[in-house]
């Protein structure tokens, strides 16, 4: 069992039960999955291959290439062309990546004050974007391959019913929020 998963089950669940009233244990908010996404502006194969291998190194899970659903003349993208890559993490892999994000990546970011919370926050998910990806140890070892990666979109998906529950859950996991 992961450190964060154990912390959630032993501490955060009981704090949530004491803070909010639940009639069913299934109503208690929890982290369901983490979605990591690279959206490449140009569909050059070397950029997509670099971002796909970066995702695989960061998460130890194989990613999939996303293709354009409809054509976009302004971006010069045709239908079916690759436009990015995605990895969906659940269970143990999710907690391992989240622990790595909280303990290794966030503390090593330059001029990092915290993650900004949007006013249009949805209760089911929380998203953030990382621009400087060289703080991942796996990418730092071979930085010359990953010099021009696009920003990484990270989406934390929960089953929280409202914004208060989501914010309390994120604060309990010690996510640095502004």
Automatic annotation (TrEMBL):
<keyword id="KW-0496">Mitochondrion</keyword>
<comment type="similarity">
    <text>Belongs to the universal ribosomal protein uL5 family.</text>
</comment>
<dbReference type="InterPro" id="IPR002132">
    <property type="entry name" value="Ribosomal_uL5"/>
</dbReference>
<dbReference type="GO" id="GO:1990904">
    <property type="term" value="C:ribonucleoprotein complex"/>
</dbReference>
<keyword id="KW-0689">Ribosomal protein</keyword>
<feature type="domain" description="Large ribosomal subunit protein uL5 C-terminal">
    <location>
        <begin position="82"/>
        <end position="176"/>
    </location>
</feature>
<dbReference type="GO" id="GO:0003735">
    <property type="term" value="F:structural constituent of ribosome"/>
</dbReference>
<dbReference type="InterPro" id="IPR031309">
    <property type="entry name" value="Ribosomal_uL5_C"/>
</dbReference>
<dbReference type="GO" id="GO:0005840">
    <property type="term" value="C:ribosome"/>
</dbReference>
<keyword id="KW-0687">Ribonucleoprotein</keyword>
<protein>
    <submittedName>
        <fullName>Ribosomal protein L5</fullName>
    </submittedName>
</protein>
<dbReference type="GO" id="GO:0006412">
    <property type="term" value="P:translation"/>
</dbReference>
<dbReference type="Pfam" id="PF00673">
    <property type="entry name" value="Ribosomal_L5_C"/>
</dbReference>
<dbReference type="InterPro" id="IPR022803">
    <property type="entry name" value="Ribosomal_uL5_dom_sf"/>
</dbReference>
């Amino acid at each position: 069992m992961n450190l964060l998963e154990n912390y959630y089950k032993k501490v955060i669940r009981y704090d949530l039960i004491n803070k909010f009233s639940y009639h069913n244990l299934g109503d208690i908010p929890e982290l369901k999955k983490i979605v990591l996404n690279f959206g490449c502006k140009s569909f050059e194969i070397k950029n997509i291959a670099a971002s796909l291998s970066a995702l695989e190194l960061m998460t130890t899970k194989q990613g999939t290439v996303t293709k354009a659903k409809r054509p976009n003349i302004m971006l010069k993208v045709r239908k079916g062309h690759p436009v990015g890559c995605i990895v969906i993490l659940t269970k143990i892999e999710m907690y391992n990546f989240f622990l790595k994000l909280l303990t290794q990546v966030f503390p090593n970011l330059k001029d990092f004050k915290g993650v900004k919370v949007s006013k249009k926050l949805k209760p089911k998910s929380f998203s953030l974007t990382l621009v400087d990806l060289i703080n991942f140890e796996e990418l730092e070892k071979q930085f010359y391959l990953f010099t021009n990666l696009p920003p990484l979109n990270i989406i934390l998906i929960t089953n929280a019913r409202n914004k208060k529950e989501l914010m309390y859950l994120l604060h309990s996991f010690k996510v640095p929020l502004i």
